[in-house]
Each structure stands twice: as structure tokens, then as C-alpha cells.
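hiii, so i know i said id send this last week but things got crazy w the move. better late than never?? heres the sequnce for the chain we talked about at the cafe, plus the structure i predicted for it. fair warning i was half asleep when i ran it
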Amino acid sequence: MAGIIRIAPSILAADFTQLGQQIRDAASADLIHVDVMDGRFVPNITMGPLVVAAARQVTTLPLDVHLMIVEPERHLQAFAKAGADIISVHWEVSPNLHRTIQTIRELGCRAGLAINPHIPAAFVSDILPLLDTVLVMTVNPGFGGQAFLPETLPKLRQLRQMIDATGKEITLEVDGGVALDTVRDVVEAGADTLVAGSSVFSGAASISANIAALRRAAGT
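okay and structure toks below
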């Protein structure tokens, strides 16, 4: 099991008519997660550097930018300039992955690698020592509100072992279907950073209460 658990609300599930206030209301979280989709790597189109820059103005929390886009290397500088603290790219879209990770770090950001449900943990091994974050998709990317895929849990356990073996401080992040009934499973599998969208920004309870409920469910 991981140690300290971090909650990263995904603003993809926020009310965009009140985005600034909802980000402020998530101040008890540890990160703010920004899902960037281009309509090519995934079917949906969401947000870009302008939204990251706007979020940067209303929170001091680290901005965790998840690029679900093709040719991410073309846009790294723009997201870093907008205020991203962490930039994650997908394994499938970076033919020169080593160079892309280096570029993210040269821009002053922490570097993450995102892997979809069909990507084995072993595919991360060669690049792992260069990463700050491994982001495991526990749904197929492209839309919020999907059901958690329990078949991804063994991969989380394997990655936890791989990360621990490096002796480095690499976070293991999970994104997709994280809710009160799944959070304990992913924490026990080794995740230490939990991206949560609908379970934070939806429902009758306040955003801060939803974050607190996730922490309790995670056992922290």
C-alpha cells in the first residue's frame, strides 16, 4: 500500500460556468488535474493552455496537466508557460519519448507518463527512472464519468513494485472511475495520487466535503 495519499480533482467534471470558484472550493485537495483532449488521440475535445492559465490565477495548488493529445511535444512549452507544474504524455503518442520527457523537465515541470488500460506495466520499465509520475488510466480515456476497470488493479500492483525498486520518489497516479466504492482498492494496489472528477464535483455535498469523504475512504 502507498503512504501519503493525494487527491487531484479533475476539473473536466466541474461546472465551467463557475470554474474559478469551483477550483477555489477544491483548496483542500493536493493537486488540480487538467484533462487536455484534442479530438484525435481521444474522441472528445476539452481545454488548452488558456484554461491552465486561468486555473493558475485562482489556485496555488500544483496543476497536474494530462495531455491526451497527439504530438504533445509541439505544445509542451505553451502548457509550461501557462503554469503547469506536472505534464503527463501518453506512451502511444511519443515516438521520441525520452526526448519528450527531457523537454518537460527542461521547461521546469515534473514529467509524467500516462498509460492506457491495454498498455502493460513492462512497457514503462526503460523510461521509469526518468519519470516523476506514472499515470495509470483505469478507464479508456476520452470521457468523464466512466466505470472503473478492475482488471487494471494487477498492473497498479506491478508498477508499485517497479517504482519502489528504483528507490526514487515517483508518484503512482490513477485516473478513471475513482469513487468512494473504488478508492480503497486502488490505494491497496499501490496508488498514491487519486484523480477524481464526478466524485468531487457532483452530488449534493460540497466539493470540500467530497474531498474529505474520499480521504476517509482511502483510509487517510
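btw Strands lie at 6-9, 32-37, 63-68, 86-90, 110-115, 133-137, 171-175, 193-196. thought thatd interest u
miss u guys!!
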